[in-house]
Amino acid sequence: MSITAIDAKTALILIDLQKGIVGSNTAHPVDAVLKHVRELADAFRRHQLPVVLVNVTGGAPGRVEQRASGERPADWAELVPELDAQLGDLRVTKQTWGVFASTGLADELRRLGVTQVVIGGISTSIGVESTARQAFEGGFNVTLAIDAMTDTKAEAHDNSIARIFPRLGETGRTREIVERLDARA
Q1: CATH no. for residue 111?
Q2: Cα separations (Å) of 79 from 26, 83, 99, 152?
Q3: Residue ranges of the Isochorismatase-like domain (predicted)?
């Protein structure tokens, strides 16, 4: 499906683009993902729309069969410099897969009048998909920038894009999203 509209008050949410995650093995080249993410961030900033930079520093406390273990480097949760983080960007640190759980982000976006979110980041099937589900359930229009995301497993990435995302919102490429933003001006 292609993008039909970009709302007047749309926010960009970039998930887990931090040193400890970007350095993982991914299904798609991270350099290309970061290039697209940066194009989106630059366009949103140019149009004075909110940019939300999200990192993760822990996990939910429940029992799981598989959990990351070991000591993380001190800079593991630092956002990558390619994002060119700005003072006006919203920064959110999460402890769960999706950014809307227990962070207050939904209330902040509503306070700003945001009705739509564009989402990108790593990992497609975990942080991005969980955030998209929560945004959809919270009443936001959801757009997923499919070339501004990747996963550690190609089959997980492909499943999210082909089977899950069309049920949560609209999908499109960075170029299409930026063109829609620019056409509104």
Answers
A1: 3.40.50.850
A2: 17, 7, 15, 18
A3: 10-174
